[in-house]
Amino acid sequence: MVNNNAEPQNYRIGLATDDAAVTLRNHLAEILRNDQRVAEVVDFGVPDADDHTPYPVPVIRAAEAVRDGRLDRAIVLGGTGLGEAICANKVRGIRAAVATDPFSLERSVLSNNCQVLALGERVVGLPLAARLVTDWLGYTFDPQSPSAAKVAVITEYEKTGRLDWPRRPEHGSR
């Protein structure tokens, strides 16, 4: 559901980027800092395009800050966002998704409770990225939604490493 609350959310947002998305990071940082729903923006990224720190370093730092509760959400940026999403998903408790369109973005939060958005500077232009981030701030996961049970399966698997799902004959178990 879209949070149409007039009150600010006071989100603490992390940004992480490598040298492939410095322009996008700078653009989004300004948008976030001017959004009334955002209380704080923490930049984990490289200072400029001449810094070739491997993307896992800033991405893991941002994802860990979300996991540890120091941040509410993070945006991880690279050339495509794919490696960044994979990397963020390696941090226990984090759900990250690449979104390049409004519907996927919406479902990443509403159906999957993703706390980390991955975007690629070489894939989405600055205007679309700005729209996606602005829309993303308006979505909140409803823990009473039908999707909550699915997210719980993911969370339990992550904790235990086991998928304890009952087989049902109507699903064709053999």
Automatic annotation (TrEMBL):
Gene3D superfamilies hit by this protein: Sugar-phosphate isomerase, RpiB/LacA/LacB
Transmembrane segments annotated in the record for this chain: none
Keyword terms, alphabetized: Isomerase
Protein name according to UniProt: Ribose-5-phosphate isomerase
Single annotated GO MF: intramolecular oxidoreductase activity, interconverting aldoses and ketoses
Family stated for the protein in its record: Belongs to the LacAB/RpiB family.
GO biological process, one term: carbohydrate metabolic process
Matching Pfam families: LacAB_rpiB
